[in-house]
Amino acid sequence: MRLLRARLLARAIEDARAEYDANRRAQVGTGDRSEKIRTYNFPQNRVTDHRIGLSLQKLPQVMAGDIDDLVDALIAKDRADRLEANGND
Fold this sequence. Notes:
The chain has three helices and three strands, in the order αβββαα. The chain has helices at 2-28, 59-63, 68-87; strands at 38-41, 46-49, 54-56. A three-stranded antiparallel beta sheet has the order 1-2-3, with no helix packed on it. The mean pLDDT is 90.
């Protein structure tokens, strides 16, 4: 009976570890270029947010914290997505 209990416990631990590892891999991603949220191009003074396709030619201002244009565009995109999702229900 102790042997069975030990095997069941080892199996449960192995299953929990496998589930944890799978969740972790899904969160981390691959780091590919296609997963990038935003890129900063210093030679061209440009910042691009790939989620909304917005490029701004004001990299120094963005780096200094002036991100209102980015935030406003993200909010507008989120609102549009929510309206579209609610309209499809």
